[in-house]
Amino acid sequence: MPRKLRASGRLCSLALAVAVSGGALADEVARAPAQWLERMNQALNTRNYDGTFSHWHGGQVEMLRIIHRVQDGTVSERLASLDGSGREFIRTGASLACYLPDKRTVLVEQRPAQESLVGFPTVNDQTANFYDVREVGRTRLNRRDTHIITVSPKDEYRYGYRLWIDDTTAMPLKTQLCDPHGRVIEQIVFANLTLPARIPDSAFRPEVSTDGFQWLRNGALPPGPQAASLAWNAMRLPPGFRMTVRSAQVLPGSATPVDHLVFTDGFASVSVFVEVQQGQAQPSAVAQSAAVGSSSAYSTVIDGHKITAVGEVPPATVQFIATQVKAQDPAAGAAAPRR
Amino acid sequence: MNEELDSQLSAMFDDELPTAECELLARRLSRDEQLKARWGRYAVVGAVIRAERGVRLNAPLAGRISAVLLAEPSLESIPTAALRRPGMRWWQPLAASGLAAGVAAVSVLWLRTQAPVSAPVTAQLAPASGLHVGALLPARAAGSAQGDSYVVPPTPQIVPVVVPSTELANYVVAHSMFSSPVARRNLLSAFMTSEPAAAPPEEAQSDAKKAAR
Q1: Residues B172 and B100 in one domain
Q2: Do B110 and B170 belong to one domain?
Q3: Residues 6 or more apart from B113 whose CB is under 8 A from it?
Q4: Same domain, A78 and A224
Q5: Could you read off the pLDDT of B48-101 as tens digits, one per residue?
Q6: Are A312 and A270 in a shared domain?
Q7: Which residues are CB-contacts of A315 (< 8 A; sequence separation ≥ 6)?
Q8: Do the chains contact at B181 and A45, CB–CB below 8 Å?
Q9: Predicted ipTM?
Q10: From the candidates A218, A251, A292, A317, which should be mutated to test the interface with B, based on the most B CB atoms within 10 A?
Q11: Beta strands A184-194; A49-57: pairing state
Q12: Range of the domain at A315
């Protein structure tokens, strides 16, 4: 090959390499905020931590404590109200106990092992179609360096987040939930957070005395084919949402099985519960809205079944999804929902 | 109610009533329920005009007010001179505003007592919690609460907290298993901090259902 040609070939290769590496760098920069979210999710799921945080919503502030442990592949978690209702959640593996002193009740939810985290939302390329994920700055919080990551929804079907993620541990030290207009509607700020190597079993015992409490556990599914329970689907969904889980279960204190459908857009998730309406529906019970903090719930009755949608999305989204759920003929097969 | 009184009330609300007349009208406000009701409506209309958050009207009233406001000529289309009364003195607004601020307490109480039962309490003066919430509010949220008013102080957006029944608790717990870690923590924290006293007892709900059947 002539020298001149070889030189120009090298130049081209160099330019190509620069272009490729530049593109990769730009790609890396663009992905960095999403990677922080992945690291945060991983830290929240896999690390041991013990922290006290304030929870603000609707002008009310309460202090709570969270203890999280991963030991021999089993996740244990305890969330307790320090100055309010005295309620506690204690999760051990697939079992979640909810202590409600105000109702003198303990709900115990046992989930089949194979269902654990099947529908867990993940940030992926498709998520970018519905959320704008950015790093908007770095700051010191509780004497720690943090990255401020914003997750802004591109439409009104979902909420956004602002997260202050610790540079060293990837733990979120502060989180704000924002409505589609960017207004903060819920905030969690850690007052202290430690990451101990070992957490004793005693940390996962409830403080509340359960003497005289009613224990409600979810029972086994009644025998027989579950084909009919698989016939529920949403005819239409908000953009980006897809169904990731469909199961039948018996909720604590209930005698009848409930179909549980989970829809997610990769970040937010909505559960839809379908159960046979007991007795005749009262007019007031046909459609009801509720809120648990910033999460929304909507219940309606369709074809003799009570449909309840719950999710960390705006009220209009749970209403939309709940009203789109319809029974399909199992023989016709499950039609793909329109989005 | 005669036109003159109506006009006085309107002028008082706009800080355009002479001090002596303000005092007389304030005394009358304290004993005249009909007049007090009208003052309250002015306060609500004023809040709507200023687009304050925290005031919720029932839909028909809100619709009527919107229709009236849309029919009104915009401020830009009215000559500035027409907005001022002839002979307006510089001290009148200052003097009137002092008294109006005093009377405002009446309208605040009126608004609070007139709130529909089913509507969420949004016109609260201070957070129920003893903690200083303002310090925790983000700059953007605090900044958006513009147009300070003595009638309805700006408050953060309040979503009605519906205390979960056992059934809803079941759904929340079952759903939390499929939420992202951050969303799950938010959801369960909100569940724990919801006010238990507001929940009707399960037995009462059950009785109500039976009675309705």
Answers
A1: no
A2: no
A3: none
A4: no
A5: 444 433 334 344 444 444 454 344 443 333 343 333 343 334 334 333 444 343
A6: yes
A7: A289, A291, A296, A298
A8: yes
A9: 0.78
A10: A292
A11: antiparallel
A12: 220-332
